[in-house]
Amino acid sequence: MATTSSTPGSTIDAPIQIETRDGVAVVSVDNPPVNALSRAVRQGLVDAFSTLADDATIDGIVLAATGRTFMAGADIREFNTQPKPPLLPDLVAMIEASPHPTAAAIFGTALGGGLECALACRLRVMTDDARVGLPEVKLGIVPGAGGTQRALRLAGFEATADLVTSGRMVGSSEALELGLVDQVTDGDPVDAAIAALKGHLASANLPESASNRIVSAPAQDLVARLRSKTAAKSRGQIAPMRALDLLEETASLSFEEAVAKDRDLFLELREGNQAKALRHLFMAERTAGRPDDLANVEPRQIKQVGVVGGGLMGSGIGYAALLSGYEVVVVEQDANALERTRERFEALFEGAIKRGRLNKTGRDRLMDHIVLTNNMSDLAETDLVIEAAFEDMDVKRDIFKALDANLRPEAVLASNTSYLDIDMIAQAVHDPSRVLGLHFFSPAHVMRLMEIVRGADTAPDVLASGLAVARKLGKIPVITGVCDGFCGNRILKAYRTVAEFLVEDGASPQDVDAAMTTFGFPMGPFAVQDMAGLEIAYANRRRQGESTDPAERRPQLLERLVESGRLGQKNQKGWYRYQDGERGGRSDPETDAIIQAAAAEEGITRTRFASEEIERRLLAAMVNEGARILQEGIVAHPSDVDLVMVHGYGFPRHRGGPMFFAEQNGFERTLADVAVLHRAYGKGWEPADWLTDAAKNST
Length: 699
Known about the structure:
Layout: E1 3-4, E2 16-21, E3 24-29, H1 39-53, E4 60-65, H2 88-96, E5 102-106, E6 109-111, H3 113-119, E7 123-127, E8 131-133, H4 147-155, H5 157-166, E9 169-171, H6 172-178, E10 183-185, H7 189-203, H8 220-234, H9 238-250, H10 255-270, H11 273-287, E11 304-308, H12 312-323, E12 327-331, H13 335-354, H14 360-367, E13 370-373, E14 384-387, H15 393-406, E15 412-415, H16 422-426, E16 435-440, E17 449-453, H17 460-472, E18 476-480, H18 488-505, H19 509-519, H20 525-532, H21 534-544, H22 557-563, H23 589-601, H24 611-631, H25 638-649, H26 658-665, H27 667-681, H28 689-698
Parallel strand pairs: 3-4, 4-5, 5-7, 6-8, 7-10, 11-12, 11-14, 12-13, 14-15, 15-16, 17-18
Antiparallel strand pairs: 1-2, 2-3, 8-9, 16-17
Helix pairs in contact: 1-2, 3-4, 4-5, 5-8, 5-9, 8-9, 9-10, 11-25, 12-13, 18-24, 19-24, 21-22, 24-27, 27-28
């Protein structure tokens, strides 16, 4: 039985607990929710190890934690200030220098600084469901407390390069195989760590400290291969390549020299723009969808989720809900459509099994919790229904009328619409307060973003329910108001419009796409449109056509392409030409001819644009529309715009999102770029008041 230590110093600072078990001191971090290594935790651990260093009554020390996880890394908030001592490297060095042998008892996750502390111990025991990693690269930095060098000496160059440049987490089997941990247990990790420590002491074969192990310089062909792979995946983010350079340089240095190099690079990168952008997003993700006016509002209880429409989006929504523990009912209109829905779910299950994320037993268990039906009445007991039908107002209103007739009055009704007016949809039911928008992004079971659309009448507890569901599904929720396209698709429209203007005025689709992929987007706007299908944007433009001011310039190229039978990848010709089996498009003389003919009819004298000019115009279009969305109150914070564009539309994460990027580079510069758009394109491209004010206030 565990007993509280009577050793002097056992009442260490609040975040740290000390107890003795079988002659071993167990030092536990108690800093919920994730045991982040804040200054108070670091100080408490330093005090604990200092006190225990002179304790002759103990045989060793186990580093552990309370709650649901081991130490999940540093307190990111401290990165924006000058951290106060004791610093993490000092703590890690103290753990490694302990006169008593040490073991780490890992459960949940040991990430970043948490894993660095564990690697400083002589032994590491890990539960079979735990995960470890050095994810600092995802914050634009490298491990700064010797974790890179200890991993290098335990796991070797290639494995460490993979872990540090990708930031991925590894499970217990892989961690054991790589040598990052010494033992895996399916029991209590502290008990297992104590037993392992005492066993090694009894046999006098305690493993050497990681810092004392020998590392070999990597072969140059291996480094070249890793460099090529890392560069391809980084897409402009500098930390992965700098981390690889660091590993190559330090593999031939002493541990002390190597750790000093680590720390220098950590400090350099921490102050860089990319690290600041990534920290901005990290914090925004954790505060998204938490408005003050819902602080004390309890969500409605949601146990069973219904989905109307079993197409690609509806099936993805249902699958995501199923994986998150909800009972799911999916309704389709007829037997043929229902069979196609069944096939989609089977394909999703089989894909998960092939990727090792699900076994057949798990699949069968999930299938017991889903009902596929043609009967709307089967939704009667659901707590939330998400409509995922075709993007047509009449269709959606008819569905909501049927839902109103079949569901309990307290059930929440949601639409997955990408553009349409939630308030008009809500008017189809007797109680509009039960209606909101839950805009998923495709594929719905993969994409993390969800726009939560608050209608004029949406009840607070209904909005809170949507946010609770989003979080249970593992989504990043961003609350938006009602407007055409909400936040993301409204900005996308401005972005695509300027892209088409640039092509009408003389750029090629390849020029535009190349400029934006160089900036960091995974794909350019025209390649994305070809992949999605040009007829989707075409149909939406026709829907919006009546509300467009005739005095505004409108792009014409998309309509000409679609009306000439060019739909994108699906029929192998859109903005680009696609050969059989190729995902990447090639330039097409037919597209060029359509572009030139359209420009001639509009009286446009075409001229080429430099890549920088293309980039600046497209970014200005995004920022200016984001500024309009902010001044209209569609979203509450600039970071909401950033989250939407990063997680829904491929804006490069290491740039922080369009609003953060504009602030970092100077709002006055963006304002000047918007003035260029206004001169070039006329009415509708005036600078937003929000942006004008931001530029004034930043000077």
